[in-house]
Structure formats: structure tokens, C-alpha cells
């Protein structure tokens, strides 16, 4: 099989029920399409025995610069299949719209890139190299996917010069946003220690729930910062609160809260914790703060490659995208440590939801943007 248009690529990929971390034949399919174009194919399985995850690395050419397209073939489950207009892995097209789990996040973008690649290579091989890094471990733990692939590449002494991630970055309209960075994320548990006792004799007890309220007040009453050049102000959200005296007439002796901070490039995780501890200290209440997980923010300065992508979007779609650093995390958090990375794909319209869909016209338009970017990256634009 060799589909020569973006619709055929997208439908064939959506038909693979690659619920994370399964690839369900999708990576083999892509390898079969890339081989005739001259790509060297590496099927890579990472992870402990019995739990290996499939990854694909494909490369054309040896010379720098190396442009890499990165993404994932795995999808979130579609267990509410009965509520879908069309079965989630049937890849049905109705009135110009492709329905299916992964249509927008992000098999559609992979299809668009493959079709662009095919058209681009008809004009001959580029002065430089092309690579594809595709994983089946993005929607899950993301441990044996892009991170492991990059480690493998570095061990081989291979370097990428620029990475384009095809995640659905657009907000309302195709081309309205390009992601050049992501906020950091920090989840922490705050504990207030008190002394339990009878509610009628509060002076003989120390109410931990009251202490926790005072502690949390210091965290939410004042902004963390005012934002930075490319980032919105950092935000803190309390996600769990727990204090229970065990009876209505008993003062709780312990209370805890869990909160998450999405933070910009004014902070590192460590400096943020120091700032939070300093503010908590103002309450005068004893506390412990435990960091449960954290990731650092990153930013790709909008250099010449990003400018080329912006111009491709403008020329093809008529208006310039916003350079965004909002939204959740993606594998760009691993790629940015290796090379500059930018994310541009479809509209994040009902991704992960019932009736995930993409208009075929948007798939074709995205493919044309990718094609223009390929031409311009390798120097003919
Ligand atoms: Zn995705």
C-alpha cells in the first residue's frame, strides 16, 4: 500500500487501535511508507522485558542540518465508543470530516507531514538530513518513548539540529498558534501539624485545619510574578484539601493540602520552592512542604528556523500565529534539552474527547504548511 495523499495516510493510521502504549501496527505502516523514499529505518523497543514500547527512528541523509519531525502514534482510550457518531477506530469520513481517536492528536499531523515529505522529495534530496522520531509512549508514562529515543541517538553520536513536534497546538483556527516553550510544573504536599482536642476547649488544642487555611492564604493572596516576555504569570491551584477530626466535636490535629504550580521562566523549580517556603513562613504556623513532582520551564528563542515556520504559516494560511507557551506538557520537554524545538499541528478541538475529528481541508492545509517549511528550512525559500 502506498497512499499518496494525506487523507489516505490519516485514515490508515486512525484504523490502527494504538491505545497507549500500543502501536498496533501504525509504526510498521509508517516504516513501509518511508522506506521507498530512501529512509533508513530503526524499530526500537525500550523498557523492561514484557513491557517494551515501540519507537521508530527514520533518517534520510548524513549531512547537517538535521531537521526532525517528532510525535506520537499512541492515543488515549475511547471506552465511551457507544457515544461516538462513528466507531473511534473506523476512520469514517462524513461531509469532509474525518472522525476517529487520534485524528487530531496527532495522527493527522503525522499524515500531513508524510504527504509533505513525499511531495518535497519529488524535487530531489535536500542539502541536509531529515529524521522522524515517533513513539507509542507519549500519552502514558512517556518514559520509554522520546526520552529513551534521544538517549539512544546521543549514544550513537547523532545530533538533531531542529525539531518540529506535530502536537495539536492551534486554539481555534489552524495556524493561530505555534508553541515555542512550555511552563514548568510543580506539585507539592503541604502539611500543617496541630494538636487534636475537644472543640469545646480549643485553647487546650491546636487546630491544624485553621493553620492550613492560614498557610494556604499566604500562597494564594499574592501573585507569584507578573509574567515574562514570552510567558503568562505563573499560577498556583489547590487541588486537594484534607482535615478530619474524626468526630464533629473533635479538633483535627493534622491537615494537608496538595497544590500544583504552572510556572514561567522567571523561576526554576528550586527557586520556586524557596519562594513558597518564605511566604508560608509568614503565617507563623509550623508546616512541612514536600515536592511530589516537578519539571522545568523551557523556551526556544524565536530564531531563524522559527521565523521560517511563521512565514510558511502566514504565506499558506493568511495570518501570523501567536507564539505561545501555554497549555500542558508534551515530549518537547525532552527534545528541548537536545536541540531547539517548536510545536505546530492541528487545532486542539475535542482532542481526548468523544467524536475527535479533523476536517480534511485542515489536514491538507497543514500538509501544505509543512511542505513550505521543508522548502524554506533547506534553503529554497
Ligand atoms: Zn498528543
Structure description:
The protein is an alpha+beta fold and about 375 residues long. The protein has helices at about 5-15, 25-35, 105-120, 145-155, 210-220, 270-280, 305-315, 330-335, 360-375; strands spanning about 40-45, 55-60, 65-70, 95, 95-100, 130-135, 160-165, 175-180, 180, 185-195, 195-200, 235-245, 250, 255-265, 285-295, 300, 320-325, 340-345, 355-360. The strands form six sheets. Strands 1-2-6-3-7-18 form a six-stranded mixed beta sheet, sandwiched between helices. Strands 12-14-10-15 form a four-stranded antiparallel beta sheet. A hairpin with a 6-residue loop joins β1 (about 40-45) and β2. It starts with 5 loop residues before the first helix and ends with a helix. The model has no long low-confidence stretch (mean pLDDT about 95). The structure holds zinc ion. The site of zinc ion has 5 residues, from α3.
List the helices and strands and how they pair.
Elements: H1 6-14, H2 26-34, E1 40-46, E2 53-60, E3 66-72, E4 93-94, E5 97-99, H3 103-121, E6 129-135, H4 146-155, E7 162-165, E8 177-179, E9 181-182, E10 184-193, E11 197-198, H5 208-220, E12 235-243, E13 250-251, E14 254-263, H6 269-281, E15 287-295, E16 298-299, H7 304-317, E17 322-324, H8 332-335, E18 341-343, E19 357-359, H9 360-377
Helix pairs in contact: 1-3, 3-9, 5-6, 7-9
Bound molecules: zinc ion (ZN).
Residues 72, 105-106, 138, 167 line the site of zinc ion (ZN).
Quick overview of this protein structure:
The chain is an alpha+beta fold. It is built from nine helices and 19 strands.
Shape verdict = elongated
Q: Which structural class fits the helix and strand makeup? A: alpha+beta
How would you classify the quaternary structure? single chain
The first-to-last residue Cα distance is 32 Å
CATH architecture of the largest domain: 3-Layer(aba) Sandwich
Count of beta strands: 19
SSE order? HHEEEEEHEHEEEEEHEEEHEEHEHEEH
Main sheet overview: 6 strands, mixed
Query: What is the CATH superfamily of the largest domain?
Result: Zn peptidases
Total separate domains: 2
CATH class of the largest domain: Alpha Beta
Average of pLDDT: 95
Q: Strand order, biggest sheet?
A: 1-2-6-3-7-18
Rg, Å, rounded: 24 Å
Strand proportion: 25-35%
Amount of helix? 25-40%
Enter the CATH topology name of the largest domain. Aminopeptidase
Unreliable runs: none
